[in-house]
Design a protein that fits this description.
By secondary structure, this protein is α/β, with parallel strands linked by helices. The chain has 13 helices and eleven strands.
Length: 338
């Protein structure tokens, strides 16, 4: 199958390398030093056990038109970056091209085929101008939840920390042939991609952690285990998760894992810095709207109060504005021993 991966970062690089190593035709849309590195050496994935995957058959370009029609587009950008590329996707679309969205948080398509009073509603926090909903036909979209923890440690080099799960789901919950084919291809590549009949439930389960641990870590520089084991961090995360659960359930979603078990699962990851904390330390724009702001918006639409989430969202937006205004990268410095 011919894949185009838009975004050759930590997740896109990992998925693309695994697919290519299994014999799939993979082209990355990349830029700058990352593009040069992939063209020269392919995509490399380093695993925690010391093993290394070198996917040298991958191709890379910065031109969507040069790629031509593909069978599947994987959008591996962060949510706030998707709008900027939507108008460039058209050359990739053939009659049956699918688009797998690999963004964290509430996706721009959340209310497509949702049913209920909010069916068809645009999530303004994620898609403020309607560009994504208008630019990507609904019938091409396949939802995805990204569980692996990875990090782009150098141009064309991804460090895999843990996880292989990428659950997939049609927006209407159907078990289509196309999604089964994609699930099989992912499985042959060593990735777990079960087909779910309600992808939104899984989105909320993943988001449950992202909307809490990411901004808390960005604001406090605490790792996952630090947040979960510190009584103040745990209490803050618990309050945010309870509010999010109330919003999700009002919208018809359900959780297959209890709240406390979700927190314990995060603690087991250990001294891992969340992606948002990594962005703060590197001076990159933080992914706050899809993870936190969208939940605030959905709470308003569902008439469910989210005071704790709103407070953390406002503090995180202030942090983002300060970083942008003053061109800051904020990293903790260990004090010398006395």
């Amino acid at each position: 199958m011919k894949f185009c991966i838009v975004g050759a970062g930590a997740i896109g690089g990992f998925v693309g390398a695994k697919l290519a190593a299994a014999g799939e035709d993979v082209t990355f849309i990349a830029r700058w030093k990352n593009l040069d590195a992939i063209r020269a050496r392919g995509m490399t994935v380093k695993f925690h056990d010391g093993s290394v995957l070198e996917a040298k058959t991958v191709k890379a370009t910065d031109s969507f038109a040069a790629v031509g029609h593909v069978d599947c587009v994987i959008l591996a950008l962060k949510a706030h970056q998707v709008e900027s590329v939507v108008h460039q996707l058209e050359p990739l679309f053939g009659p049956k091209t699918t688009v797998i969205t690999m963004q964290n948080g509430i996706p721009f398509w959340y209310f497509v085929n949702h049913g209920g009073d909010l069916a068809g509603t645009r999530v303004e926090t994620v898609d403020p101008h309607g560009v994504c909903l208008e630019g990507i036909p609904n019938d091409r979209i396949i939802g995805c939840v990204v569980y692996p923890a990875t990090e782009l440690v150098a141009p064309g080099v991804v460090q895999h920390i843990e996880g292989e799960r990428f659950p997939l789901g049609e927006l209407d919950g159907s078990q289509s042939n196309r999604i089964k084919d994609l699930s099989d291809i992912f499985a042959k590549s060593g990735l777990k991609a079960p087909v779910l009949d309600n992808i939104r439930n899984e989105i909320w389960l993943k988001l449950w952690g992202n909307l809490t641990f990411n901004p808390i870590s960005a604001l406090t520089h605490a790792t996952l285990v630090d947040i979960c084991e510190n009584p103040f961090g745990r209490a803050l995360a618990t309050n945010m998760m309870r509010e999010a659960q109330a919003v999700a359930e009002k919208l018809g979603a359900s959780f297959r894992v209890p709240l406390e078990k979700r927190i314990e699962g995060a603690a087991k990851v250990g001294k891992h810095k969340t992606s948002m904390l990594q962005d703060v330390e590197a001076g990159r724009e933080i992914e706050i709207d899809a993870l936190v702001g969208a939940v605030v918006e959905l709470g308003i639409r569902a008439a469910v109060p989210t005071p704790t989430i709103q407070a953390v969202y406002q503090a995180s937006k202030l942090l983002a504005a300060t970083m942008k205004q003053d061109k800051l990268a904020i990293r903790g410095i260990a004090l010398p021993s006395v």
